[in-house]
Structure formats: C-alpha cells, structure tokens
Amino acid sequence: MGDSWDATVAPINEDTVGHHCFGCGSLNPIGLRLRFRTLDDGGVWTEFTPTREHEGYLGMVHGGITATLLDEAMNWAVTNEGDIAVTARMAVTYRQPLEVGQAVRVTAALVQRRSRAIETRAEIRRVDSGELLAEADGRFVRVSAAQAMAWREAYGAEHDDSTFADAARRTASSSR
User: CA angle at residue 168 from 150 to 38, to 5 degrees?
Assistant: First the structure.
C-alpha cells in the first residue's frame, strides 16, 4: 500500500449527513469517528489513538476494537473504488497488542473484484515505528441496486459529490 500520509488532504468520508455508524459516524457519542484519506495506489488510510474506553486487558486495546478498525478501513477502500458493499467474511491476524494511548495507522486496499465479491486487505501499524500489529483479509459483497440507492438517499443525496454518494450511484447502475 502507498505511503503518502498527508493529513491535510480532505477525508473521503467527511460526514455529509450525520449518522451513528460506530466506525465513522459523527453522531455516535461512543464511536471511533474515523476519517479516511486516499493513498496513491487507490487504498485508504486513517490514524487512531485508542483510549481507556477501548481497553480489553490492562493497557491493551480490545480485540473487537482492533477488528472494527480493520473492517471499517476495508469497507472504505471498497467505497473509494466505487462500490457499496457489506462484510461477508473477515479473517484477522493479531501480531502484537495495540496499546492504549499508542497512535496507530490503519491502511486498506482492494485485492480483487469478482462479480459481486470484492477481496480486500488491511493492516494496522504503529505510527512511530511502523511495526505491524494486526492484519486482515476480507470479502465484501456488493449490495443490490435498490439498497445502494436507499443508502445514497439516507447518507448522501444532498451532497452528490461525496465519495459515498458517487459509489452508491455507480453500484446502483452497475452490472459488474
């Protein structure tokens, strides 16, 4: 995956309509509120610093939060490439624990697109050292045209230039 970590680039998922998604929604008071930016190779990235609220064992981030970071990144990689899809399968490998208070960078990209199935890959690394902490392979399934249009209306109809609205429009009209 590319390595242009320019945080001044506008996020692709800046909320156009407030929503409660645990991973990226601005209205969820306990959500992660992740903001993704694009990489040169078409992938996406975000940075996140977990707090005590994300803790599992003492000082370690709960594995479910780690999995959520990977899942959310893979989904936004799919959206960034022009599809609206949902997670069908995800396999996570935990290499080292994420630590509370330690900034991490999450990256994700598409690996392969077949019919409605989209294969993805994501990883989490420490920002300071680049050490690999966790990685995942995922399969996403493109939603129906009707579902894509319904979500476009709910999340992006007022802002047709958003990444999500563009992907929903393409998914709704796609025969891929």
Answer: 140
Both structure tokens of 131: 């050490």
Q: Report the chain's terminal Cα–Cα distance, integer Å.
A: 25
Residues 6+ apart with CB under 8 A from 38: 9, 12, 44, 80
Half-sphere exposure (Cβ direction) of 102: Cα atoms closer than 13 Å: 21
pLDDT tens, residue by residue, 54-84: 999 999 999 999 999 999 999 999 999 999 9
CA atoms within 13 A on the CB side of 174: 21
Rounded CA separation 151/119 (Å): 22
Looking up tokens 């959310």 gives 72
What pTM was computed for the model?
Answer: 0.92
Place of tokens 């975000």: 46
- The pair of structure tokens assigned to 22 is 């645990």
